[in-house]
Amino acid sequence: xxxxxxxxxxxxxxxxxxxxPQSRSPITSLLxxxxxxxxxxxxxxxxxxxxxxxxxxxxxxxxQILQSTVIYFVMACGTGLLMIxxxxxxxxxxxxTLGGITTAWTLVHGVAWPAAIALxxxxxxxxxxxxxxxxxxxxxxxxIATLGTFFIILGxxxxxxxxxxxxxxxxxxQQLGQTKIFGVPVMILYALAVGVVxxxxxxxxxxxxxxxxxxxxxxxxxxxxxRVQRLDRALYVLAAGxxxxxxxxxxxxxxxxxxxxxxxxxxLQVITVVLIGGTSLFGGLGSITGIAIGxxxxxxxxxxxxxxxxxxxxxxxxxxxxxxxxxxxxHLRRNRLYRR
Amino acid sequence: xxxxxxxxxxxxGAPGTPSLELRDVEKAFGQVLALKRxxxxxxxxxxxxxxxxxxxxxxxxxxxxxxIYSSDAGEFRINGERVAWRGxxxxxxxxxxxxxxxxxxxxxxxxxxxxxxxxNLPRRGRLMLDRKRMxxxxxxxxxxxxxxxxxxxxxxxxxxxxxxxxxxxxxxxRLDTQILLxxxxxxxxxxxxxxxxxxxxxxLRDQGKAVICISHDxxxxxxxxxxxxxxxxxxxxxxxxxAETTRDEIVGLxxxxxxxxxxxxxxxxxx
Lengths: 340, 271
What we know:
heterodimer, A: mainly alpha, ABC transporter involved in vitamin B12 uptake, BtuC, two-stranded antiparallel sheet, 15 helices, 2 strands, B: alpha/beta, Rossmann fold, 2 domains, four-stranded antiparallel β-sheet, 8 helices, 12 strands
């Protein structure tokens, strides 16, 4: 959809994917978008923190927020696509670690970094395939299947590393996570690339439409001849693959394969980002822009509360409150969007 | 989709290769025999109704033809060629069968145009969706059928039950297949909309398509169908030409107060 960039912002943003019917006023439809609400919340929190500590809005701090968004966002792209397709993956936090340590382990055993990265992502892909096989062949519900593989992979991770971090990693690899291009940390550019590709897949390809159909009404997708089993497999592979990729980016950033990185809290943070971003737990609805804003919001809270010298326990309290509000809003939105 | 020879005669009783033929088809779900012996023959240019009480097995027949279930025994032919589904509904699509399910199989969060193209999305390049073409096609089909549901970009979740039903019918029409199966296509419709759908189905028949329609609505069936196959308790008990039967006879076959045809074993074939 190409519109002149001079068109006012209200118009332009309301023409995006889930376009509400024309009978609704542009303002109502804009307000009904999860992204709008989240952007407002981000600004409000930003203003609140800035008032308490004026270093918040500095370029250095905002860059820092974006940088800490990268890991969650990259993972949330894959997990988000999966959840829009009606799936769920609890193993991503462990796959994150697995991706990082697989790449680190192969690096310290003399493998060149491009191959090491490929092997790290490959480890994630294998987990995705296994998750899908457990769900489709053994008929274990996704939440249980991936919770099971989550624990298994946590164990495997310790088995691979002997419980200690893998280091030192070659500088050529570390540079991949630490250099800056025109002052912008290269990590942020990776996240941007993953985001653009994910957005393209979801909004512009037949695959993306089929994913929405699958999540929106699985029976209907089957009845209309959508090849759902292939889609399912691709989605679990994407979720685990991006989790492994995020782990590799993290390993490059910190310069080691950390066995303690990731885990349950990472899984929960990623799912929280996806849900806050307006993705329905029941599938069908959701967008990559929403997920991006959700990820930024979460990083903003984590960063901002420290800067505003608010005790750390409030971090979780605020995150939990925002999650509940976001999902309640999602429900409200669905009710307004559809007749029942 | 292969081009199929179209036999436009539309006259019941005319010979020709049936578009769809089921012979002695059986289907069990665990211990329950859903279909015990089903014979059905539908010709090009025919509007063929399947009637029967709840639990007679009508929807199971539809799902076998649609590729959702596979039959346990019996023969299933499309245009004279014996088939056994392996690829599910996608394969049925490719073999020229379009289906309107009783639950309509629409995705609420997607718009009308996308719903109408589902399973057969127009492509641009290898992977991309040609959204413009999709919307154009949807608008054209709705226009041709004189269906007014507003913009094709309206999410299906916003439509009324009747509008949804008509979108589901339009989707099947868009596929332009030789065989159309509809499960209770008028269930949610008012009088005028029912007549509209009847008109659409007759139009498709006149184009030489085989239109097979499951319905409870005998009034609709007698007004629009050419032939009626009656199902009872997992059997097909008889097939009648609408011109040569009465409502009493059909009701009798449905309820079992009339004995099933002795010739039923030959598949309701016209002699």
